[in-house]
Structure formats: C-alpha cells, structure tokens
TrEMBL record:
This is DUF47 family protein. InterPro entries: PhoU-like_sf, Put_Phosphate_transp_reg, UPF0111_domain. It comes from the Bacteria. Belongs to the UPF0111 family.
C-alpha cells in the first residue's frame, strides 16, 4: 500500500459494500423467481424493481461523493468504473426478471437455473470482497474466482442457445427466451468487469 501524507475520504468503502449487498438481494430475487408460480412473478418483479432503484440511489451517492471529495481513496476513474459496473449488474438482473413477466413466460428453459446460480455465487463473492478494498487484502482469489465463474457462465449460455435453436420452440418463443438468457449473460459479464476493476485498483495501490 502506498504511503500517503493526505487524509482520504473513506465513506466510499461503505457505499461500495452497500451496493454489493444490494446485488445479493437482487440475486436472491432471481433465485426466488425460478421456483415461483407464474402468477407470483409480478410481485417478485416489483421487489426487484425496488432493489434496482436502491442500487441507483447507491450509485448516485457514490458519484455525488466523488464530485464533492478533494481526496479519494483511489483513482477517480476507477471509483467511477467500479460504481458503474456494480450498477450494471443490478440493471441486467432487473431487466431479466421484468422480461420474464412482460413476455408471460410459462416455463424457463433448462439451464437458466445454472445461469442464476452462477450469478448468485458471484454476488456473494463480490459482497465479501468490497470491504477488503480498505486494506486491499485477500482480493486475488476473489477476482480469479469471478473470472472462472464468468467462463462457466459463457459455457452455460452457449448450451442454452443450442437448446433454444434445436427446433423444440417456435420462433417467437425463441426470441423471447434468447433475450432473457442474453441479459443474464450480460450480468455475468458485468460481475467480471467489477472484478477486473478491483484487480486494477489493487495493482495501482500495491
């Protein structure tokens, strides 16, 4: 860790941790969606929308703090990138739930549960990692594991696409389901972006 002569604004750490905790809430709602009766999905979508709004508030708080702080704990562009990537995760998860409801999907294709399980694990790891930004300790395993999970998500996504195009579904259903699994894949990519940003910060601060 580099020695600094000037004090730094430390509230960013708490705000990043709160943002990551909210993502865990979103991942749990995704898991809940899997086992829910179609008639219960609209209510889950409402709770996900509330979580997404809370995520927006957390992101705006970070940006406001960034704009009003003379000294920051690490580079401003990295703070902006980390906050934006965390926000992207919630946006993609909320979009996936909303699409399931809007498209009146009766049954999600086999494999979506694996996508969501990967996202839930990545959410847990991210929430565990954010408090460690204070010391930059015990972060290497985090970004290695999230990158491994993203590779796993890629494989699941490709298998899902192959399943969707095997002729079992009609063309309109394929379009609906493909959009949902694509958005879930984007959420996995966003987790990797967060991990890569954390790695960049750790390297700069070492």
């Amino acid at each position: 860790m580099r020695f600094r002569l000037t004090p730094r604004e430390t509230s960013f750490y708490d705000m990043f941790a709160a943002s990551a905790d909210n993502i865990v809430t979103g991942s749990k709602l995704l898991m809940e969606l899997l086992g829910a009766d179609p008639s219960a999905r609209a209510e889950i979508a409402e709770r996900m929308r509330a979580a997404e709004h809370a995520g927006d508030d957390a992101t705006h708080a970070i940006f406001h703090q960034l704009n009003s702080s003379f000294i920051t704990p690490f580079d401003r562009e990295d703070i902006y990138s980390l906050a934006s990537s965390l926000d992207d995760i919630m946006d993609f998860m909320e979009e996936a739930v909303d699409l399931v409801v809007l498209y009146n999907v009766e049954e999600l294709p086999k494999g979506v549960e694996q996508q969501i399980e990967v996202l839930a694990r990545a959410a847990e790891l991210t929430a565990e990692a954010m408090p460690n930004l204070r010391t930059m300790d015990n972060l290497t395993e985090y970004w290695i594991e999230v990158n491994r999970l993203e590779n796993q998500a890629d494989q699941i996504h490709r298998k899902l696409l192959a399943h969707l195009f095997n002729g079992k579904y009609d063309a309109i259903e394929v379009l609906k389901l493909k959009q949902i699994v694509d958005v879930l894949e984007e959420a996995a990519d966003a987790f990797e972006h967060v991990a890569n940003t954390v790695e960049t910060i750790a390297v700069k601060e070492s």
